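It is worth pausing here to work through a concrete case rather than discussing structure prediction in the abstract. The textbook approach is simple: state the sequence, then state the predicted structure, then interpret. We follow exactly that order.
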Amino acid sequence: MSSIEIIASILGVANIILLVRRSIWNYPFGIVMVSLYGYVFFEARLFSDALLQVFFFTVQIYGWWVWYHARDDAGLVKVERMSTRARLVWIGVIAAATIAEGWYLATYTTDSAPWMDANTTAMSVVAQYLLSIRKIENWILWIVTDMVQIGLYYWKGLYPTTGLYVLFLVLSVVGLYEWQRERRAHPVGAPA
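Step two, the predicted structure:
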């Protein structure tokens, strides 16, 4: 357990609470959190998770821009649902990315959990993108991803991060509920 991991965990809690509340101010916390976690995961030899933080950093900036332009009169982001077709496409993307990256990690790296690392990476990439474009389904992916990552991080001895992901799991359930409630109260167009 390092002080960097603890700080990243604290920033992660602030980030997710603000996401659940649909506040654009989640992004500064998220940017610093993913920067610190890049180091933590690299040190733990979870290379896919470490590389994932680079993606998260970029998508945090993109999401900040998208959310800035999609706020309601109260300054909160408007949320949307995906079409069934879009859901199926993203499930296919996750499966293909898991197979390709899992094979690569198992064959060419010393990644300590290549298939699990690849799967959580694929789900996280899709969930983060869906979050940045304000799709409610992002929370379902985060719930599944968090459950897998809790076991992975516990196994790797990353106890503050394990605790953070337990909290992320709870907050993802709350986020799903809150965003669905908001969508029912203020529908925005047809699913995309």
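Step three, interpretation. Helices lie at 3-20, 26-43, 47-68, 84-108, 114-132, 138-155, 159-185. The chain has seven helices and no strands.
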